[in-house]
From TrEMBL:
Any Pfam family matching the protein: PBP_GOBP
Single annotated GO MF: odorant binding
Protein name: Uncharacterized protein
Keyword line: Signal
Taxonomic source organism: Exocentrus adspersus
């Protein structure tokens, strides 16, 4: 029985790793897609310091593009809390911590662009690694 349990845990670990690889590939594709559109293209230097560039309209357009395409925000700019929870859950398994992060970080701001930037900043500050694929 222990052997079966260990085997199933191994399969679950491999499946979880494959899911993360697929998500990372999707994130790279989304980033490239947003970069290929002149309306959402942003210099990579701006991406490396979101906090210092939070008011840059091009950075806002890019982050909203990525956030919308990954499903964190709807087309109208509103946050999709269920998707945010599921994406955070890929790197954090403690559901209470996921809920706390969503409560703290998934906050609508004055504009959809500022909402996107602040969501990424907050989650990054809290150590959520899923979004590092962007």
């Amino acid at each position: 029985m222990k052997t079966v349990f260990v085997f199933l845990c191994g399969i679950a670990a491999v499946m979880a790793q494959n899911l993360i690889i697929v998500e990372e590939q999707m994130l790279h594709h989304i980033h490239d897609e947003c970069q290929s559109d002149p309306a959402t293209y942003v210099d990579h230097e701006l991406l490396h310091d979101l906090a210092a560039n939070i008011d840059n309209p091009q950075l806002g357009a890019h982050m909203l593009c990525e956030s919308t395409k990954v499903g964190l925000q709807k087309e109208n700019g509103q946050l999709d809390v269920d998707t945010i929870k599921s994406k955070i859950g890929l790197s954090i398994t403690d559901t209470a911590k996921v809920e706390a992060l969503v409560k703290e970080c998934a906050v609508q701001k004055n504009t959809p662009e500022k909402t996107a930037i602040n969501l990424f900043l907050c989650l990054d500050k809290k150590g959520v690694t899923y979004f590092h694929g962007f």
